[in-house]
Amino acid sequence: MEHRQVMLEQNRSARLVAWGVRFFLAAALTASQMRGGYAPFALGCVAAAGAGMEGAAALAGTLTGALLFLDFGDALPHLAVAVLIVAAATAFRGTTVLNRPAVSASVAAGLFLAVGGIYVMQSLSPLEELTQCLAAAGLTGASAWFFRPLLWPETERPASEGVLFLAAALLLALSDVELLGLSLGRTLLCVLLAYAAYERGAVTGASAGLGLGLTADLCAGTGSGIFAASLGLAGLLAGSRSGRRRSEAALAFLAAALMALLPAREPLAQPLLMEAGIAMVLFLMLPGRLFGGKRIKRAEPESDAGRQVKERLNRAAAALRDLYDSLGRGAPQSTEENPAIIFDRAAEKVCRGCALCDLCWHKEYTGTFNALNDATPYLLERGRGMAKDFPQYFADRCIHLPDFIAAVNGELSAFLLRRQYRRQLEETRRSARGQYAQLSELLSATAAGLEPASCSGEAACQVGAALRPKTGESVCGDTVVSFQTESGAWCLLLADGMGSGDAARRESALTCRLLQQFLEADIQPEAALKTLNTAMTLRGAETGSFTTVDLCVFEPGSGEASFYKYGAAPSYLKRGGSVRRVTGSSLPVGLRGAPAAPDVTRVPLGEGSFVVMISDGVADPGRDEWLMDLLAGWSGEDPQALAGRILSESIQRERLQDDCGVQVLYYPEPPAKKV
After folding, report:
1. How many alpha carbons fall within 13 Å on the CB side of residue 671?
2. What is the pLDDT of residues 188-233, one digit of tens each?
3. What Å distances lie between residue 468 and 102, 414, 476, 621, 647, CA to CA?
4. I need a labelling partner for 555 at 20 to 30 A (CA). Which of 196, 306, 367, 604 fits?
5. Cis peptide before 671 (omega within 30 of 0)
6. Model's pTM, two decimal places?
7. Rounded CA separation 493/515 (Å)
């Protein structure tokens, strides 16, 4: 009960933080405005927040921002669009439609045009304002697209493009803040662009510069494209100096600004040039650790074999590094249990039915508290309580002293065992994290020792998948992943996190991401699963969570499919009208200590066969005859259609009582040769 209470408190705190982030982001982004009083970034944040309390928090944030930063005439259509976006998300909650970034972005842009178009048609110059309205709608959709992965991350690390877009949107809010006639927001925007171009190269620099420039032109209301021209060229030239000295990138940025701005006759040309100069000074002052240390020159070209070896080693190192990070992120800091719980539990057993309970624990509470507090050091030192440990006035008053001391000793033994277990677990966790970190460093430093992998060629396999969340949830707690390794093996992953909703999705997504990194680094599946299980057992000891893992590895060269299961639902092999079930009995990862091997089943997979993997929400293993009949009667060749058919039939039978995940691999027969 206590552990569950701690978990509830943690979940409540996490929800409050999530609501606060959405509130303050929406409020701050309302200050980033375009000409015409539009605030598209805030509306994109509302669209990305979705339904429920998250969407309500973002709506409240943009309402607050509208009161602070918008005129009354501009605030009305802005709030109307925000309310419609939240209403649409609420109406389609529980479906996977609006969970797709492209769909939510399109809906947000469409609702903006629906409301904004009414105001444009009623204006005195509708044609002039139409361009601004269309641009604001586009920025609303783009904001929803970029903000969605940040507010609902699929992985532990947010997408760099989304972070860059969010930072630029926030900096645009500072464009009107001027010091000595120079814009603080535009200066910091130049610093951000130089950093992104220097880190990611010329292509990223040019695209980011053009995007930021066009957005800045729209927000400033310039019609000449001065920001797009100057920032696009500056990003291109600064990115071309990536890997060299920072001073070269700064000089290239300034040279581009001079070429673009000196011939311009815009009033903003001269201030923007000065802002670019100040920005490059700030760029050179950034700490070196932001750039991964000093980089003097580009590395010498490597051979293909050497590059492949380094990539494989770096993948393995990255997988171990993420495993190391997951142990630290998932577990809260260990805290010692308060010894007062010993007396609380003993009192529940002995004192509650005592005639003097009211006297000891209400009228004389201070004296009782002091007596127990004085006895605590003797109990912890000796490991056992005695009557002489308690003050005389307490011992004389207690009419059940022997029973109370016996209860205290029982709770004391349990307390000491729990403390010993926590300390041993923490020591094991630190040892495991240290080993993963050291091994990751060794792999990163190794540059030879492996031969380049030989790929057996791409097999003509096809994969289909379908997910559906439990009734009442907006996201599915199951995760499906499919990929082909460099050696040509096809890997299908299906993980089912404990419970449902976003917390389950995070756990299952983390498990799939870590396992995929191991497999792509050419680590054998069984070894990768054992390592993952050990780490997740340590993580689950604190978080109380676990995840089922279902892995299928198909080798086209040998025609063999290997199934690895940790607590997963049965899988099914179909060829023609014959269907075979593949089961396992191992517990999920996080529930078994090391060494704990998965259930392994290896079967030949002939051409024209299907592999079907499901989570336990799709079909009860004890009554899956309907699924086997469906597979036996299926005559199609499209794995996506089969996955959709299975999920549709499951919804009718199981009523979405749990998250549902289906993944299908089809190994088609080769086309007949022409005679």
Report:
1. 4
2. 878 887 888 777 777 777 777 777 777 776 666 655 566 677 777 7
3. 18, 44, 6, 19, 8
4. 306
5. no
6. 0.44
7. 9
